[in-house]
Specification:
This protein is an all-beta fold and 120 residues long. It has a domain of 78 residues: OB fold (Dihydrolipoamide Acetyltransferase, E2P), CATH 2.40.50. The chain is 0% helix and 62% strand. A five-stranded mixed β-barrel has the order 1-2-3-5-4. A hairpin with a 5-residue loop joins strand 4 and strand 5. The protein starts with 6 loop residues before the first strand and ends with a strand.
């Protein structure tokens, strides 16, 4: 049996920054997803979850990095990476990031077929 580390997201792009790193372009962007549920009292609730994503230029399945724009719908397939870092205050922190292997921009005309995910 082989190991598997895979995540698939479909949501809206928050911030999107393209930078140069060691001669290659990299886009660091955020994606928000929403899950809706109904609580015991019958009230509808929506839970938003933000993900930090990194996509590198030139990989198959990655579009022009400048086409990843704030507010656009996107589908991302990749793997999770745990990263530890130290803040300017000397505090150790951990981050769980997504390294993209596939990025698809979802055209506005395709949005009508999307429905929110519901927690059961």
């Amino acid at each position: 049996m082989e190991f598997l580390n895979r995540i698939e997201l479909r949501g809206v792009v928050g911030r999107a920054d393209v930078n140069s790193y060691n001669g290659s372009l990299v886009c660091n962007f955020s994606v928000v997803t929403e899950n809706s549920a109904v609580d015991k009292e019958g009230n509808s609730t929506v839970e938003s979850t933000w993900f930090n994503v990194t996509a590198w230029e030139g990989q198959p399945g990655i579009p022009d990095l400048y086409s990843i724009q704030k507010g656009g719908w996107i589908r991302v397939v990749g793997r999770l990476r745990q990263r530890k870092y130290v803040t300017q205050d000397g505090e150790e922190r951990m981050s769980l990031d997504v390294l993209a292997r596939l990025v698809e921009l979802i055209p506005r005309e395709d949005l009508s077929s999307l429905s929110p995910q519901r927690d059961w």
